[in-house]
Amino acid sequence: MAKAKQAAPKKPARPAGGAAAKKSPAKKTARPAGGLAAKKPARPAGGAPSKKTAPKKDAATELRELFEHGLKDIYWAEKALTKALPKMHKNATSPDLQNAIATHLEETRGHVSIVEAVFDSIGKRAQTEKCDAMQGLVEEADSIIKETSSGAVRDAGIIGAAQKVEHYEIATYGTLATYAKALGENTALDHLLTILEQEKNCDALLTELAKGGINMDAME
User: Fold this and answer.
1) What are the respective helix, strand and coil percentages of the chain, to the nearest 5?
2) Which of 138, 164, 4 is nearest to 77 (CA)?
3) What pLDDT, on a 0 to 100 scale, did the predictor assign at position 113?
């Protein structure tokens, strides 16, 4: 007798449409916009949370008080400069730099009087309040003089120190002028803008001296 043929195994049925079944890919966790993983806000060094600074008892509570505080600050700064600039002048060797410092010393003495006029225009007595920023800048200038040899190198250092002073004054007088305008103190505004213009001119002159030869001489 002939042996019965074994039936061929049946292939698994395909899903509707004839396409082979595909495995569903695992779903990925959605990332925030930009494709970057979310980060926790950084803490200050040491991990301790920052704290707000408590105001002093006499802290300013309005713009006018802040304006008056700024005037006291720059009044101290200008007086300090009338003592610091002669030392820069004495240690400079370039005649042009010496002349620039001498000219600005006279302007600075005038600035003291102009700031006093600003106080008068707002009905306040002229008072000083120690300017920590100017004290630091003057001390840095002294250090530069001590750390450089007399000549072009020291002159370059003196220019750099003097320009730091000018930039601080430009920022300060610019801010005070803005306050004066907001407060409607037009006379004070005119005085402050006069000083501001002279500070900018001095800074530009120092830049011209540095680029005009002093920095190059310091390289030799």
Assistant:
1) 60, 0, 40
2) 138
3) 98
